């Protein structure tokens, strides 16, 4: 467990850990794989429905608003800000994990606080986006946006948008809760006493996964 | 729990400089995607299939950097990398199979439901309200 196994050894012969990864971390990876299949199923159903449709609304037209600047036309600007916030909070999370490797409690606390703030900012942005779309008449079962070629609206667009971004937002929300728990545990010296900040690394895996899913949601809904 | 990383490992995999380098790569890839999207929105110079290919390629590049660097998978044991990566062949198969299925379903609707075909391919007249809820084309 302590040493990386040399490449030529038979890892499956017993007596050593074939993955050389701690149990909880392995299980976090397997959980994230199952979650990736859930998101995969959502996004693949989006693709299937979109391929069976004649036309689809133009994302540059639908997502062109920004808070506090009225009806100015700024396609994709707000979602760019959301993407930037999430990438940024992913970086602060890696920095927290890095500080954990060095068993530097003060740095872990600092970067965890930044990560939590980033997550809350993302949730705030998403709340505004949903609120704004709802004001325009978009919701589950209601689509005010006509297709790019002028043909009638298709409610599949809003159903899929709110379901998938909602499911992702719920993951961000649970990630923020997990990060807050990690912060409290760090402040209470739980990891200091345990002698390892490995839990921060496991929470970090979950947080990066949320960022990873956003990369795909961003491409599917805002770019394609 | 034992500390599973050696110090040399950390220096290689997650030094602060390395983390910020990954951040800049992700940011630049996102900005390139947006430049393509906005230039296309203003000028319509690109073929839509070409554009989607670019978006898909850049998305996969970003996914690689997040998983390999931020989630540190690149620096794990090869056996472990394989158990994770190989499982995603199933998703690739599902993407191919179900998108083909969606395309086929669309063709069947167009062939056997002339009303749907006419409704969904006729542009709305100016001033005509787009469908809300009931009565919308599915």
The share of residues in extended strands of chain B comes to: under 5%
Count the helices of chain A. How many?
7
Which outline of chain A best applies?
A: globular
Distance between the termini of chain B: 54 Å
The residue ranges of chain B in which pLDDT falls below 50 over 5 or more consecutive positions are: 1-13
**Count of β-strands of chain A:** 0
SSE string of chain B: HHHHH
Helix content of chain A: 55-70%
Compressed to H and E, one letter per element, the order of chain A equals: HHHHHHH
| Class by alpha and beta content of chain B | mainly alpha
Main sheet record of chain A? none
Give the N-to-C terminal Cα separation of chain A.
45 Å
Q: How is the biggest beta sheet of chain B arranged?
A: none
The number of domains of chain A is 1
User: CATH first level of chain A: which class?
Assistant: Mainly Alpha
Mean pLDDT figure of chain B: 84
What would the CATH topology of chain A be?
Four Helix Bundle (Hemerythrin (Met), subunit A)
Describe it:
The complex is a heterodimer of chains A (224) and B (138). By secondary structure, chain A is an all-alpha fold. Chain A has a single domain (53-223), classed as Up-down Bundle (Four Helix Bundle (Hemerythrin (Met), subunit A)), CATH 1.20.120.80. Chain A contains 7 helices and no strands. Chain A has helices at residues 23-51, 59-62, 77-101, 105-135, 155-187, 190-194, 198-223. With 138 residues, chain B is mainly α. Chain B has 2 domains: 1-76; 77-123. Helices cover 73% and strands 0% of the residues of chain B. Chain B contains 5 helices and no strands. The longest helix of chain B is centred in the C-terminal third of the chain and has 35 residues, at 78-112. Mean pLDDT of chain B is 84; it is low at 1-13. The interface between A and B is large, with 82 and 66 residues.
């Amino acid at each position: 467990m302590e040493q990386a196994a040399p490449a030529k050894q038979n890892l499956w012969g017993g007596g050593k850990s074939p993955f050389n990864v701690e149990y909880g971390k392995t299980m976090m990876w397997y959980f994230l794989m199952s979650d990736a299949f859930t998101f995969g199923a959502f996004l693949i159903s989006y693709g299937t429905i979109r391929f069976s449709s004649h036309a689809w609304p133009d994302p540059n037209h639908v997502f062109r608003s920004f808070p506090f600047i009225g009806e100015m036309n700024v396609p994709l600007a707000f979602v760019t800000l959301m993407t930037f916030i999430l990438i940024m909070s992913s970086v602060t999370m890696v920095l927290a994990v890095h500080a954990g490797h060095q068993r530097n409690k003060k740095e872990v606390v600092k970067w965890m606080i930044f990560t939590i703030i980033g997550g809350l900012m993302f949730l705030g942005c998403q709340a505004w986006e949903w609120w704004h779309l709802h004001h325009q008449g978009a919701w589950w079962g209601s689509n005010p946006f006509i297709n790019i070629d002028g043909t009638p609206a298709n409610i599949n667009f809003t159903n899929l948008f709110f379901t998938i971004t909602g499911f992702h937002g719920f993951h961000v929300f649970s990630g923020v809760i997990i990060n807050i728990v990690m912060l409290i545990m760090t402040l209470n010296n739980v990891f200091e006493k345990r002698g390892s900040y490995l839990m921060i690394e496991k929470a970090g895996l979950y947080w990066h996964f949320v960022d990873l899913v956003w990369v795909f949601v961003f491409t599917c809904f805002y770019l394609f | 729990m034992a500390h599973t990383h050696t110090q040399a490992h950390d220096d290689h995999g997650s030094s602060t400089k390395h983390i910020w380098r990954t951040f800049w790569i992700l940011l630049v890839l996102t900005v390139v995607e947006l430049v393509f999207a906005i230039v296309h929105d203003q000028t319509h110079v690109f073929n839509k299939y070409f554009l989607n290919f670019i978006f898909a390629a850049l998305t996969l590049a970003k996914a690689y950097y997040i998983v390999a660097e931020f989630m540190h998978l690149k620096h794990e044991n090869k056996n472990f990398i394989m158990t994770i990566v190989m499982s995603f062949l199933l998703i690739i198969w599902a993407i191919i199979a179900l998108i083909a299925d969606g395309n086929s379903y669309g063709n069947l609707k167009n062939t056997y439901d002339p009303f749907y075909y006419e409704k969904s391919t006729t542009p709305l007249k100016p001033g005509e309200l787009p469908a809300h809820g009931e009565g919308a084309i599915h």
